[in-house]
Amino acid sequence: MAQTTELAPHYWPEGLETDSQGQLLIAGQPASMLAMQHGTPLYVYNAEDAGVRIQDLRSQLPDGVKLHYAVKANPHSQLLRRLAPWLDGMDVASAGELQRALHAGIAGRDISLAGPGKTTTDLQAALNAGSVVGIESFTQLHQAADLARGQGHRVPISIRLNPDFRLKSSGMHMGGGASPFGIDAEEVPELLEEARHLPVYIAGFQIYAGSQNLQAEAIAEAQARSLDLILNVCPGGIIPEFVNLGGGFGIPYFPGDRPLEIAPIAEGLAQLQVRLHERWPETGLVLELGRYLVGESGVYLTRVVDRKVSRGETFLVTDGGMNHHLAASGNLGQVVRRNFPVAVATRLNNQASEVVNIVGPLCTPLDRLASQVHLPHAEPGDLIAIFQSGAYGLTASPVAFLDHPLPAEIVL
Ligand SMILES: Cc1ncc(COP(=O)(O)O)c(C=O)c1O
Fold it and tell me: Based on CB atoms within 10 Å of each CB, which residue in 85, 112, 226, 310 is the most buried?
């Protein structure tokens, strides 16, 4: 007899809406209608929702804290255009992302380029746009300076520090210890001394310590330590325009996850602003967020193409999987695989009646969208919805693997 696991209820996104037939509604539109119009698999992004999310966050943060969006989280051009009016700037990781930010209507000056491997093309594009080049090594400093010589004026750079601490409780550490990201804090004085003789000026400092954190206190502590570090390493004579404290704000995906509390972070930031302004009255604080702003506003819809039973376990086979949504398959940043929030979008009002595995079409056991999940009975033709799919979805997935067609992406 099949053994069923005692299941923790999966995290259920807030505010789900259904029509009278129990169909998932996304921005008021039935999932099956969207699937019929655009085909499956399909990513649906709710830009209105993301906009509300940004404004809600802003209303809780102290005045003057700037909100930048990290394009890598979701670079969909239409989504960027819709979000741009609510943002103070964007963080990009390549010349390609920079073009997207510019097309979305963000001024070059409000864009910053970060990443450990900037090519000459990336650097040149940033300089041409008047964007801030995030410097993460001595080599990058000199490359940027060489290109800047042709500009006839000093170009803005920011110094990304690799801190000497880690962001506690973080899904992914991006600092502390040895790291390809940023310059070790202890080397910054030497770098600043070299920069004095080059055609650059220090527009800001940045620390990005980690991602996907649901512990407000851990984030607030990392922000306080980041500011301390920046105040300590920056010699007199430099007055940065901004101090970018990174992000790390997480969203709930898994059983037991709780939404991040913003209030403790906001209180901490208000105190940090006071400390910052004691030394540099005109310098602004910047947060650089991706997942928190868009992650909850995306749904991945994929259609069941087969239903089979193998040695007592039921498998729903879908037309899309890890090739489009690596994160939901558990192969992007998870140590132990856990299910993203998942539902049968065409039968939301039905009672959960069976335990199934949902697998994608690829010939690898890694292509699994849900394991041992308790759902209403579904048949070929039904739609599966994977929630919390607005960040690090399609563009963070191995789309060419097995050469299935790309999913459509629509912005509502
Ligand atoms: C430099 C930088 N900024 C911002 C982000 C966005 O992080 P998140 O989506 O966790 O907010 C990242 C993510 O890796 C990053 O490396």
Answer: 112
